[in-house]
Amino acid sequence: MNACPKWYLPVSILALLWNLMGCAAYLSDVMLTAEDIAAMDATQQALYNSRPAWAVAATAVAVWGGAVGCVGLILRKRWSAVLLELSLAGVIIQDIGLFILSGVNPGNFVMAMQGFVLLIAIGLVVLSRRAIARGWMG
Hints:
Elements: H1 8-30, H2 34-38, H3 42-50, H4 53-75, H5 80-101, H6 108-133
Helix pairs in contact: 1-4, 4-5, 5-6
């Protein structure tokens, strides 16, 4: 295994923290009570209620696969690339459910945030593939 650049480990740790925040957001989303949903504005309720179960499952794959994939990055394991690719697929599938099939305009903030999530997921796949190509992972 080749030596990693100095930025590799801090970036991998930040990526893990990012994905752990996604895991926390996912858990708080799936644990919402009927009262929590009733307290949402009409657009948020429509968005929440329009999500098919497969889109919620894709979100789970995205956040949990991303978190474990980032652990793999930190440990410099090749298998991290597969998990980060699954995580990216989960983000894409989730976004299809959210933006294309829901029929609800989620608003600019949600669109910007999901765009940022997508860019990070792509970046982590690129990082994992580059790390394998350069011999940083075993």
